[in-house]
Amino acid sequence: METLQKRIEEASSLDALEKIRVEIFGKKGLLAAEFAKLKDVPGPEKKAFAEGLNHQKSALQEIFDDTLKVLKSAALEKQLISESIDVSLYGNLREKGALHPVAQTMDKIIDYFVSLNFSVESGPLIEDDFHNFEALNLPKYHPARDMQDTFYFADGGLLRTHTSPTQIRTMLKGKPPIRMIAPGAVFRRDYDLTHTPMFHQVEGLVVEEKGKVSFANLKAILTDFLHHMFGEVEVRFRPSFFPFTEPSAEVDISCIFCKGSGCRVCSHTGWLEVLGSGVVDPNVFKAVGYEDVSGYAFGLGVERFAMLMHEIPDLRSLFEGDIRLLEQFR
Ligand code: PHE
Fold first, then answer.
1. pLDDT tens, residue by residue, 246-270
2. What pTM was computed for the model?
3. Are residues 150 and 234 in the same domain?
4. Most-buried pick from 92, 124, 197, 218 (CB within 10 A)?
């Protein structure tokens, strides 16, 4: 009896205990063998014999149950330790992505104008003659249409050649005052070092009650904007022509590479052209039915800004998706 008790208590694992259980309590186990002797015990002693055995059996059972409990909780403890997760461990480090340099530049431009309360508008890439040309004071057969080489569809639709049609759409759907920019893709038949058939522009338009804005406001805001984008550069407004603005100006900054002394990037002029702008032509307001208003507008090429800000020599590289170029903008 005592040795059995000891063997149970000393079982080192659940498996070992199970073996002992079968040995003691099993159908062919030690206790069963003892009970089998009952039939040979003489009548008057049977009761005492059986009681004795039952007593031993329940004593052993109790010890067995206790031991089982102890071994089970030890096994659980062991499992919990082996399966625990160290949440403080670093995972596999992931490669970080980044915004495309054109998107980064676009965001920087948008941030500036949003901070001045300009709304951000958008329009369709597939445009019609009216919005892309006609309403912008470029009537059919106007020689200025030659300024832009257009992708036309068979039905007369076209890929917009600039973001200016969004000026028209925004004026038609709203009413003055208007203070908007329109970023987006535009398309022209062009392909060389500094031109791709698709590129991005940001358009700007401000319309106020007549007399409230003038060329002076245009000049002030664009000068401040170019300082935001390029830092301390000189800004110069040069008379130019756009059918939808009068007067018109192209805006130059002093060359950020040679600081104005003349280099290859600025074709030895010391200046870089970065913007088209002007006071909105009355014919444009007429086309959208606006009266007694004045306004100014501007447009810029986002890739050109990105190229200048990041010294990217070939515009086409921006659209080749070469990871080695993109990695430099993380
Ligand atoms: N739409 C002109 C272009 O694509 C830019 C521009 C916009 C000029 C608004 C003046 C005013 O070249």
1. 999 999 999 998 998 999 888 999 9
2. 0.72
3. yes
4. 218
